[in-house]
Design brief:
The chain is α+β, with helices and mostly antiparallel strands. It has three helices and eight strands. An eight-stranded mixed beta sheet has the order 2-3-4-1-5-8-7-6.
C-alpha cells in the first residue's frame, strides 16, 4: 500500500488575496481561514474542500521563495502537497525508491502541518511536497 494517502492541499500564488478570496467564497460557499506563515513572509487564505485545502498565498515583499516563484512564473498553481500519516517513514520509503527531499529539511507549515518539499523534475513546474498533520 502507498504511504501517500491523499491530496492534502493545493497552493496558488497570487499578487493580492482579496479578489481571489471573493471569488472562491462564491465558488466554494465558505469563508477562508486567513493567517500569516512565520518565517515565509507570506499571507495565506485557506479553504476546506472535502478532506483537502485550497490555499492562496500572497508574498508580503519581493523577498523569499514564494516571491521568487511569483516573479518567475506569475500567478497560479505552484504547489501540490500530498498527505502522509508519518513524514519520516514516508521519506524513508521514497529514499529507497531514489526520491529525495530538498535540502531545506522539514518545516512547520500552516496550522499543525509538518511539510517537506521533494526534489522533483523541473518539468512538473510546481513544488511537490509531503504533509503530515501533527
Amino acid at each position: 500500500m502507498s504511504h501517500i494517502n491523499s491530496v492534502h492541499h493545493i497552493n496558488y500564488v497570487v499578487k493580492d488575496l482579496s479578489p481571489h478570496i471573493t471569488y472562491l467564497e462564491k465558488v466554494l460557499g465558505c469563508k477562508p481561514i486567513t493567517e500569516g506563515l512565520e518565517g515565509r513572509n507570506v499571507k495565506t487564505a485557506r479553504f476546506p474542500i472535502g478532506d483537502a485545502w485550497i490555499v492562496l498565498v500572497q508574498p508580503l515583499s519581493e523577498e523569499g521563495e514564494v516571491a521568487r516563484i511569483l516573479a518567475e512564473r506569475g500567478e497560479g498553481l505552484f504547489l501540490l502537497s500530498l498527505g502522509v500519516d508519518n513524514l519520516d517513514s514516508s521519506l524513508s520509503k521514497l529514499a529507497q525508491q531514489g526520491v529525495q527531499p530538498d535540502s531545506k529539511g522539514p518545516r512547520k507549515g500552516l496550522d499543525t502541518w509538518l511539510i517537506q518539499d521533494l526534489d522533483c523534475p523541473l518539468g512538473l513546474a510546481s513544488v511537490l511536497q509531503l504533509c503530515q498533520n501533527a
